[in-house]
């Protein structure tokens, strides 16, 4: 079958080539992939993986072979899936615990943006606890995870402060629900209860310093690649402790169906809008990767894998 494979000589080290057909385990369905999306971690892995590796966490498509143990949806079901690689292929075998049926009202291309980016944003907000009426700062707010975090925090009733690296990055975030858009945490005008951090480094340190007693910083990513240096005493002497908590939404997460269903329901009702600023056929993956690495995307890039039959 065709797949995007790692090739050290190709632009972005990715090229459309051939890979073996997936061999499903008993609890896995085989899905014909229609769309996938690009995540920054995939650029990291493309730079390091063995030649021939098939990457791709997110994929949406149609079940062509239900799981042999009788679990999961029947053949023909439209599904969105998460896997630790294998999504950038015409077919993927996926654990039924890592998929959800896509409602008719949701486009499969939109569904393909959800598992990693929206799922991680949702998990971070769940970990942060109640957010209604609280001040939530989202760093890296223009990115894949950030664009969903802004929307989900607004849906949860928070006062949302979106932090971006440039005025251009901040465009459109107010329409997604941001009450304030700032150029970096150092420009936030007052304390915050929750930080959803995608950037790490100096932004993490500055954002941590903004926390109210009992507040939490949910550390999703480290896009800056910088060390974070906290001023002496930052972590001391608070009767209601503040915390830095890591967020993980990768392989082995057990509540993924519930997570995906919650997100799909929000998209189906129009409350959550996947923000796609690059879309194209999967053989143009290097172009999408270049835009992602160059911080020129707002939200997500979607790769079209196989044509979707008209509905
Ligand atoms: N924990 C998990 O399970 C999990 C899941 C998904 C993602 N992640 C991680 O979370 C981070 C964000 O992921 P994403 O998919 O949202 O990435 P993304 O789309 O590239 O967004 C990252 C954002 O960070 C900002 N940024 C600030 N400094 C940057 C720098 N030096 N280089 C690049 N971007 C910088 C950029 O906004 P401005 O240009 O406006 O500054 C950019 O929009 C990544 O580190 C990713 O690996 C972790």
Description:
With 311 residues, this protein is of the alpha/beta class. The protein folds into two domains: 2-113 and 274-304, Medium-chain alcohol dehydrogenases, catalytic domain (Quinone Oxidoreductase, Chain A, domain 1); 118-246, Quinone Oxidoreductase, Chain A, domain 1, CATH 3.90.180.10. The protein contains eight helices and 15 strands. The protein has helices at residues 40-46, 108-111, 114-128, 144-155, 167-170, 201-208, 256-268, 285-293; strands spanning 2-6, 14-18, 28-37, 58-65, 78-82, 91-95, 99-101, 135-139, 159-164, 180-183, 192-197, 211-219, 243-246, 276-281, 300-304. Strands 3, 4, 5, 6, 7, 14 and 15 form a seven-stranded mixed sheet that branches. Strands 10-9-8-11-12-13 form a six-stranded parallel sheet, sandwiched between helices. Helix 8 (285-293) links the parallel strand 14 and strand 15 (300-304). Helix 3 packs across helix 4 and helix 3 crosses helix 7 (256-268). The protein is globular. It starts with a strand and ends in a 7-residue tail after the last strand. The mean pLDDT is 96. NADP nicotinamide-adenine-dinucleotide phosphate binds next to helix 1, helix 3 and helix 4. The site of NADP nicotinamide-adenine-dinucleotide phosphate has 29 residues, from helix 1, helix 3 and helix 4.
């Amino acid at each position: 079958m065709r797949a995007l494979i790692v090739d050290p000589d190709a632009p972005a080290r990715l090229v459309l080539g051939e890979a073996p057909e997936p061999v499903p385990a008993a609890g896995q369905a085989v899905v014909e992939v229609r769309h996938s999306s690009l995540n920054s971690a995939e650029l990291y892995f493309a730079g390091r993986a063995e030649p021939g590796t098939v990457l791709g966490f997110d994929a949406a498509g149609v079940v062509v072979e239900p799981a042999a143990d009788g679990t999961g949806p029947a053949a023909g079901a439209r599904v969105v899936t998460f896997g630790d690689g294998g999504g950038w292929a015409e077919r993927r075998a996926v654990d039924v615990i890592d998929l959800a049926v896509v409602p008719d009202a949701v486009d499969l291309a939109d569904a393909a943006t959800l598992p990693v980016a929206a799922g991680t944003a949702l998990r971070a907000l769940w970990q942060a606890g109640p957010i209604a009426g609280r001040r939530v700062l989202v760093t890296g707010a223009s990115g894949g995870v950030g664009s969903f975090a802004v929307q989900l925090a607004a849906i949860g009733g928070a006062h949302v402060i979106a932090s971006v690296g440039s005025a251009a990055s901040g465009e459109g975030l107010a329409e997604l629900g941001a009450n304030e858009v700032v150029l970096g945490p150092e420009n936030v005008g007052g304390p915050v209860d929750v930080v959803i951090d995608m950037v790490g480094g100096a932004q993490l340190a500055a954002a941590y310093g903004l926390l109210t007693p009992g507040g939490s910083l949910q550390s999703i990513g480290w896009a800056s690649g910088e060390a974070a240096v906290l001023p002496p005493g930052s972590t001391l002497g608070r009767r209601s402790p503040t915390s830095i908590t890591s967020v993980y939404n990768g392989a082995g997460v057990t509540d993924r169906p519930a997570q995906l269903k919650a997100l799909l329901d929000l998209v189906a009702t129009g409350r959550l809008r996947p923000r796609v600023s690059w879309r194209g056929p999967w053989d143009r993956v290097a172009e999408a990767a270049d835009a992602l690495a160059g911080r020129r995307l707002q939200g997500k890039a979607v790769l079209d894998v196989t044509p979707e039959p008209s509905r």
